């Protein structure tokens, strides 16, 4: 499964964005994505049906289609999401994206040197 | 978007959420009741977790009489790295520390914030009626955020790379609790300019909490929000700077601080609820300039002008221009029509591109 996570807002208003292929993730995290980032869980908690609360971060999840004719499924949740397991998975994906970006930057710096 | 798969009230489909919020905040008891019902319906899933309650009144908080005894009540919970709030109660008012640094910081910071509002603005807690200040620490894993959920504070520990534990900054604690003050003062809808004013008020009283605790004058203060929580390797000095919006950080991982300080650079965006954390740089800088012009301790004159404005703004969708107008009106009322304070408040707004 491939997905794009795009996060904005929050106290620091820091934007984090990146594409993730579950095949590149640790098995346990990939399993939790399949288990918890379901259309049912995400539809029930979409921020499009709620009022924004101060400093809650928003997370756009774009599930990329398996084939060229497929459609991107998009869900938006925020820090007020009532399904803890969804936020747990998002936290791990955010950490993954931040670490990956930091590693890439460190590598670029090494190459520049 | 309206969800047609579940039964819903027609108003829920017609009115966007911010309008329902406005009606609820401005309306009488019957309207509030109806909007609350809509709110509950649209938020079934959320309410199942925490029964997030709406602002209870659209009116200025009652002022306690001078010399009144503060009745501070705090509760700190440990979320144990889970998302479910509030978690396990670890400290209540008057109890000794349990040795958890973040719990102590949340407890002490709530007290410092309470003291500013009580001693300077005669406000008894966030709602003006002695509300217990609840905070949860250790929320989620590597969580780079802190937020106000309508009932309580939630603080992450940060991931150690971008942020350290967010309770480490008193300006952050004062900021988050001030969102509660905004809510219980009638609210500023968290979208576009009114949302940026909500953010700005929280920044203003966040830094004032820090300055009040330290006894700093406007000239001595650093005017930074979250200076203590940036990761050690981040190239920056804070999350935001009221003195120099747009210059708080410039880092390869985080990017550059995007805040404008003038209306010429106002950011039109759909992200971040219409750029509430971005365009707040404009009113933030107006407050900073006002405080510098007026001199002395910022909570004494500038703080009172901004606090009086919140109490009477009476428009949850207030624009920057409307807010600016009211600050000048409040300065005139408090200090006199031709007072130095009123003239300099007006001048501060002019310098950020808002003519009053």
Please tag this protein with its features.
heterodimer; A: 113 residues; alpha+beta; four-stranded antiparallel β-sheet; 3 helices; 4 strands; 40% helix; globular; B: 356 residues; alpha/beta; Elastase, domain 1; Neutral Protease, domain 2; 2 domains; five-stranded mixed β-sheet; two-stranded antiparallel sheet; 12 helices; 9 strands; 43% helix; 8% strand; disordered N terminus
What does this structure look like?
The complex is a heterodimer of chains A (113) and B (356). Chain A is 40% helix and 25% strand. Chain A is α+β, with helices and mostly antiparallel strands. Chain A has one domain (2-112). Chain A has a four-stranded antiparallel beta sheet. In chain A, α1 packs across α3. Chain B is of the alpha/beta class and 356 residues long. Chain B folds into two domains: 12-184, Elastase, domain 1, CATH 3.10.170.10; 192-351, Neutral Protease, domain 2 (Orthogonal Bundle), CATH 1.10.390.10. Helix content of chain B is 43%, strand content 8%. Chain B contains twelve helices and nine strands. Chain B has helices at 10-14, 17-26, 29-42, 44-50, 101-121, 170-184, 192-214, 272-275, 281-294, 302-312, 320-335, 340-351, and strands at residues 74-78, 88-92, 133-137, 146-148, 153-155, 224-225, 240-241, 250-251, 255-256. In chain B, the strands form three sheets. A five-stranded mixed beta sheet of chain B has the order 2-1-3-5-4, with helices on one face. Chain B has a two-stranded antiparallel ribbon with strand order 6-7. In chain B, a hairpin with a 4-residue loop joins β4 and β5. In chain B, α6 crosses α7. Chain B starts with 9 loop residues before the first helix and ends in a 5-residue tail after the last helix. At the A-B interface, α3 of A face α2, α4, β4, α6 and α7 of B.
